[in-house]
């Protein structure tokens, strides 16, 4: 069967399930983010950088909204569906498709402080109410507790489960601490955000306190005991589409559920001769049985989608039949119409990009272009390995240490290694002391926080480490293409 025939079958099959979606919150569209940065210093806050999420493929996109000299800004933000976005230096905020959210930020106050919301609508109500609702249940404490002894985990978990049940009871009884006139959809988002924070806490504390070799070494036979509270609560946790609206760290919540709870989807070995469809069915049955779940729920289906739309499968030079085959293999397991709709949208985008019908929007500005040209100009005529990194990023530091031999080996070739960091995140004195102590060679470039945000929007940098290549003619290319100059 050729590629076009496979695509036709997939479109026809999934289209039959999409008609069940009738809630606009799950549909794509745009929202307007506008407001003002008060008391901004000259040369700062050139843009408001907004990160949006496709939670069905674990992808993120950076959007830049220019800030006028008087501090005002306004821009349209494309959304896969209504969800929380991350605004650099301001924090997470919920955006509903079709809404306009007004934000005022006092630039003299610390990150994520000095923020107020104006206007009317669902987005405004959610963001105004969330801090008070969160404080009502959690107080001022951080739910993530690092350093718990292994024997302390069961008692800690029971406290979180008790709090979880209190939240569920209040949602069912319609007694969340909000004004009486609060709309049902606002309460739905606030309730899902509370549940999401508690589920996130259980996953993070397991990760940090119960494992010794990282999640790759998790003992799968222990998972059922630790996550025994999922059984009987799946409609609130693992089978709850409203989790897409969770305000705090939505991408981490969904991704962690896939990695820490649905770990078999990503890391179980595939047996010789086992078809992709049989593999997905097998690991899905293992997960369902382990936790005593009634069916392959929403989170499990999302984990399957994220496994299909991994970066490796989406790379331009990969065989499109691989991704098409994997997508076809999960179709029989996708019963939720929201997952069916959103995964199909991502697949159609992939097909369009492969056929040249869809272009990727990059939030570049002349100012960002000028900054990058200034950085690379001294190294003209060389092929450049360009790393965006920071001292707070452990994987960044590990990569740089592993790369020391390569930097030394290529020092006489027309190749340069550029390490770019945000001087706010990586103060120069502290950073240079670490670089010297660990003998990290290369070209070390410090940019201001404002310049970093502009470059992040230009290259869609939503997480570090992040790498690009620049060829000898000054063209930005895939990082791996620079290896051709290093041979």
Account of the protein in words:
Helix 2 crosses helix 4 (184-209). The chain starts with a helix and ends with a helix. Strand 2 and strand 3 form a beta hairpin. It has 18 helices and 13 strands. It has helices at 3-18, 122-138, 153-172, 184-209, 220-226, 250-261, 263-267, 276-291, 298-308, 311-314, 320-330, 337-354, 366-376, 394-402, 404-409, 428-437, 449-459, 483-486; strands at residues 29-38, 47-54, 59-66, 72-79, 83-87, 91-95, 100-106, 115-118, 383-389, 415-422, 443-447, 466-470, 476-477. It has 487 residues and is α+β, with helices and mostly antiparallel strands. 44% of the residues lie in helices and 17% in strands.
């Amino acid at each position: 069967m050729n590629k076009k025939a496979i695509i036709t079958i997939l479109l026809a099959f999934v289209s039959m399930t999409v008609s069940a979606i009738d809630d606009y919150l799950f549909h794509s569209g745009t929202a307007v983010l506008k407001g003002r940065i008060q008391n901004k210093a000259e040369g700062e806050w050139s843009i408001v950088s907004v990160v949006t999420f496709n939670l069905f493929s674990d992808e993120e996109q950076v959007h830049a909204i220019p800030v006028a000299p008087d501090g005002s800004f306004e821009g349209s933000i494309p959304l896969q569906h209504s969800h929380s976005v991350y605004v650099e230096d301001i924090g997470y905020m919920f955006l509903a498709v079709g809404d306009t959210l007004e934000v005022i930020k006092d630039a003299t106050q610390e990150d994520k402080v000095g923020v107020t919301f104006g206007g009317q609508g669902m987005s405004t109500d959610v963001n105004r109410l969330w801090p008070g609702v969160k404080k009502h249940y959690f107080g001022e404490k951080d739910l993530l507790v690092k350093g718990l002894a292994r024997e302390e985990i069961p008692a800690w978990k029971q406290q979180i489960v008790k709090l979880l049940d209190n939240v569920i009871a209040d949602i069912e009884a319609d007694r969340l601490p909000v004004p009486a006139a609060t709309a049902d959809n606002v309460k739905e988002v606030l309730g899902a955000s509370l549940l999401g924070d508690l589920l996130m806490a259980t996953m993070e504390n397991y990760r940090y306190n119960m494992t010794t070799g990282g999640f790759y070494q998790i003992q799968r036979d222990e998972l059922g005991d630790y996550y025994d509270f999922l059984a009987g609560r799946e409609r609130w946790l693992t089978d709850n589409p409203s989790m897409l609206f969770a305000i705090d760290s939505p991408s981490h919540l969904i991704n962690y559920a896939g990695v820490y709870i649905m770990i078999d989807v990503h890391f179980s070995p595939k047996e010789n001769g086992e078809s992709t469809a049989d593999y997905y069915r097998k690991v899905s049955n293992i997960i369902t049985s382990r936790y005593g779940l009634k069916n392959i729920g929403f989170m499990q289906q999302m984990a399957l989608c994220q496994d299909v739309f991994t970066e490796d499968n989406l790379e331009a030079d990969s065989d499109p039949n691989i991704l098409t085959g994997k997508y076809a293999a999960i179709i029989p397991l996708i019963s939720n119409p929201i997952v069916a709709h959103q995964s199909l949208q991502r697949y159609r985008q992939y097909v369009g990009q492969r056929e040249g019908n869809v272009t990727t929007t990059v939030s570049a500005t002349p100012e960002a272009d000028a900054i990058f040209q200034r950085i690379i100009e001294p190294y003209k005529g060389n092929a450049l390995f360009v790393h965006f990194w920071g001292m707070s990023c452990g994987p960044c530091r590990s990569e740089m240490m592993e790369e020391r031999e390569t930097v030394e080996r290529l020092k006489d070739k027309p190749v340069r290694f550029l390490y770019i960091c945000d001087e706010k995140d990586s103060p120069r004195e502290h950073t240079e002391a670490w670089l010297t102590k660990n003998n990290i060679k290369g070209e070390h470039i410090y940019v201001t926080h404002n310049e970093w945000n502009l470059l992040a929007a230009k290259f869609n940098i939503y997480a570090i480490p992040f790498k690009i290549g620049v060829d000898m003619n000054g063209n930005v290319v895939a990082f791996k293409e620079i290896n051709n100059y290093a041979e």
